[in-house]
Amino acid sequence: MVLIRSVSGVRGLVGQDLTPAIVSGYARAFGAMVGGTVVVGWDARRGGAELHNAVLSGLEAAGVVPHDIGVVPTPTVGIAVRRGRFSGGMVVTASHNPEEYNGLKFFTARGTFLERPDVERLLAEVDARASGGISDMAPVEPAPGGPAPGSGEANWIERHLDLILNCGLISLEAIRTNPPKVVVDCVNAAGSRALPELLRKLGCDVVELNTSPGAGFPHGAEPVPEYLGQLSEAVRSAGASLGCACDPDCDRLAFVDETGRAIGEEYTLAMATAAILDQKKGPVVANVSTSRMIDDIAKEHSVPVYRSPVGEINVVAKMLEVSAVMGGEGNGGVILPEVHMGRDACTAAALVVGWMAARGAKSLGELTSGFGSYAMMKTKIAREDADRDAMARVMREAFPDGELDLTDGPKIILPSSWVHTRPSGTEPVVRIIAEAESKSEAQRLIDLATAALSAA
Q1: Burial profile 275-286: b = 16 or more Cβ within 10 angstroms, e = fewer
Q2: 366-374: which pairs have CB atoms within 8 A and are 24 or more residues apart?
Q3: What would the pLDDT profile of 303-337 be if each residue is shown by its tens digit?
């Protein structure tokens, strides 16, 4: 593979596509772009310390002051940038990718990821420097007035958790009246302190699993059912009310019910959205690969749903455009404007645990019993040079009776199902996702799409 560059940042295999020298070059270019003081964090995955140090060196070489806040969730970096009035932020993380990967994420002074024009500007600067031509870049958006007084000494995890606890949308009293037992799996990465600490502050009885940063991932990094067997067993053994698992940089969350059943990460955004709409009305934004559960919940509360391309910053941009009260992605990413305009596993946990307590539900099964019954299937095929126009042509031919949506790669919408295909922004693959009223129908759509794309 080659280094993957997109609005989600930069990803690659450590030592092959991603080396300290390459990382330092990206940091130096980003420092030249934003100036001032840049917040730096990382996700504790093995091999990340060297790349983290390369970021610090690259920023210093650009004449930028790095404000290193260590191993923290990615959303904590965004909050630190915005609340501390820093010029920008960088995180060394490959998010949900396996441990042999690493990467970089970049924040503007607003505390949100770079939008596409700024990403393209950054990549052009990196490429110019790599080829020997260095442009004279002015900062794209200097932080107003520089860092806030005392921001350098702040404990940003504590400030992050305080924002959640004080947002006014978490049922704190209901949780503390009947505190649940929760098992939390942080895959020995960036959420290992923040997520258990938040749950304890909420009043939960917390059982920790894989909360030793740097000890290595004990299982697959993505919080999907096939990697949650250890959590499921721990929930059953502890007699817990539920379990939750985050990805390495703690911006995605998935749940396990009291029986140890992994309910699927699509339910995270659905439950969090229902929790918010029970309290306030307004538009909701989700990406085009997110379950129709969101549409059902929004319809029940008489509010509109808007769809964006996949990618956190794309969801955020649409949320700002329509003044959304909630947004996110069906991969377990929840975005609550009152806390942070970015996906946040800690916010997701607080909203779901609070909603469960407010509803008086004794189980996640009871909590989600009113949601639509859908089956979602996902797969991916290796493809480094996917052509979106060609993909659209073959998908139209494979599904002549469906409506073609080109918001982000071809999505075929059928009366009671859909299938979406798009080149990944984080791996050299094409992702294929289908949702239907039965697993067999969703699998049929997956098989048809896979055959069509493979033959193209």
Answers
A1: bbbeeeebbbbb
A2: 367/271, 368/263, 368/267, 368/270, 368/271, 371/267, 371/270, 371/293, 371/296, 371/297, 372/292, 372/293, 372/296, 373/437, 374/291, 374/292, 374/293, 374/435, 374/436, 374/437
A3: 999 999 999 999 999 999 999 999 999 999 999 99
Q: How far apart are CA 105 and CA 55, in angstroms?
A: 11
Specify the pLDDT at position 134: 58
Which of 127, 154, 181 is at the close of a domain? Answer: 154
Task: In whole angstroms, give the CA distance from residue 285 to residue 308.
Answer: 7
Give me 396's structure tokens.
């139209």
Question: 48: which residues sit within 8 A by CB, 6+ positions away?
Answer: 42, 92, 93, 102
What's the whole-model pTM score? Answer: 0.93
- Cα–Cα dist 165/8, whole Å: 28
Lowest mean pLDDT among 19-33, 178-192, 377-391: 377-391
* Residue numbers of the domain that contains 121: 4-154
35 pLDDT above the threshold of 80: yes
Q: Are residues 395 and 339 part of one domain? A: no
- Amino acid at the residue 385: D
Tokens of 446: 């997956």
If one counts every other C-beta atom within 10 angstroms of the C-beta of residue 8, the result is 20
From residue 251, alpha-carbon distances to 149, 181, 247, 277, 296 in Å are 28, 22, 7, 21, 24
Top pLDDT among 14 and 384 is at: 14
Q: Which residues are catalytic?
A: 95
Whether residue 379 sits in one domain with residue 364: no
Domains identified in the chain, total number: 3
Q: 65: which strand partners?
A: 37
Smallest CA-to-CA distance from 280 within 301, 297, 294 is with 301
